[in-house]
Specification:
This protein is of the alpha+beta class and 119 residues long. The protein contains 4 helices and 4 strands; from the N terminus they run αβαββαβα. The protein has a 4-stranded mixed β-sheet, with helices on both faces. A hairpin with a 4-residue loop joins strand 2 and strand 3.
């Protein structure tokens, strides 16, 4: 049972957001980039050799060239590596947003659509 004052984890916020997104845009693909999380040194080494890069945003919507970095509603900061990736992606013409929880992500997506940048 979740306590009323408990702040949902980034995972919980992201899961809720992806469910909302897929319900509202069933024909638009969104996927997670599993760069974070605890793993053994051997697994981390293998993934790094395969191209995993620190700081890449959490999710991508290819049709919209949209990258989404999800954070908790409180706590959680954008790392230097994440800032670097966000600036790089914006610099090559993609949209990159940082969302503080599911509700913020919904608002930011709806604002992008209202601006007419996304279909």
């Amino acid at each position: 049972m979740m306590q009323a004052d408990r702040i949902p984890t980034e995972h919980e916020e992201q899961r809720q957001f992806v469910q909302w997104f897929r319900k509202n845009w069933p024909d638009v693909r969104i996927f997670a980039i599993p760069n974070g999380g605890a793993r053994s040194a051997a697994t981390a080494g293998r993934l790094k050799a395969e191209g995993v890069a620190s700081g890449v945003p959490d999710m991508f919507v290819p049709a919209w060239s949209l990258w989404i970095e999800m954070k908790r509603t409180k706590g959680g900061s954008v790392s230097a590596e994440q800032k670097d990736w966000l600036q790089y992606l914006e610099g090559i013409g993609h949209t990159a947003i940082v969302c503080r929880g599911c509700e913020d992500a919904k608002k930011q997506i709806e604002n992008l659509i209202l601006k007419g940048t996304k279909e």
